[in-house]
User: Fold this.
Amino acid sequence: MSEPVTTERRWRTFADVVAFALGTNVWISIVILPAIFIGALHGPGRILAALLPFAVLMLGLQRRSEVVLLGLFPAAVLVPVSLNPQLASSQVYGPLRFALVAIGVIAYLFGVSFFTTFHEPPAPRSVRMLSSAQQGPSTRWLRRERVYWGLTAMSIVIPTVLIAWVNFDDGIAAYIGAMYPGRVALMTTALTAGAIVLWLGIYHYAFLGALRPHRTGDRDLVNKLGRMRAEAKTGKPRTRFYLAVGFALVAMLSLILLRHL
Amino acid sequence: MLRRYFFEILAVALIGGSLFFFKETLDYLARRDYVAAVLVMVIGVAVISVGKEMARLALVQRD
Assistant:
């Protein structure tokens, strides 16, 4: 009777160890090693900023929260980089080191997203094959699986290419050097952050947008759709209508005041 | 029926009209008047949101 509990605990521990090992690797390779390389670990503020991602990782592991591990931790890694843009400059990252760090980040994201949601089901008491199971998966599911693998591959390729392009293209480096002399590292880091934001936007609208209609068995989504249908039947504008009107009026008033006062 | 056409015309007018604000945003940006550009962009986004809401109401009337 205690076997499922033991199995669950075993998987939880395994997921925690994987997240800790891969997360620590990401933290050391993106924050600690570059900071040591350029000698940036001076002063309590910078040391605290360098320790922040590790603290967030520990918090995520303690709470076993996917939001903290997959959202807050990567964001916390960018805090020391934003305080000291030299940490992400192309002098610190050669193409080989960039490739190794990219592999580490991808391994962390995949490892955490897979192992924290993976649960080994308890062994069944008896097994009976259904007749449809012998025919193999339908072409519809095979097609979907191909789409999922395609999206996964693009999720790796697009951000890696965008960031590598920003950091290693000679034309971009020359342009930034001419436009912002003395601030090349800062502007390159800002462009890298812009590439990450662009990728997150593409991922949210294009990738998740393609996956959302597939979640037909999702109870949350079904409830949300039901709520939207009920709202539509009332025939009244939603709160966002009044908010939009308010924003427009405030912006117009500000513009008038700006022009005539 | 009249109500539905009213909402549809309003939706088209608002969504089409929002383009004017986005064009103005670009004009302000070209003149490096960034504060005004942001304000006009907020107006454009607000107008397009109101248009979207009108379109939703027109769809409800059609049902």
Observations:
- Chain A has a mean pLDDT of 81.
- Chain A touches chain B through 16 residues (CB under 8 Å).
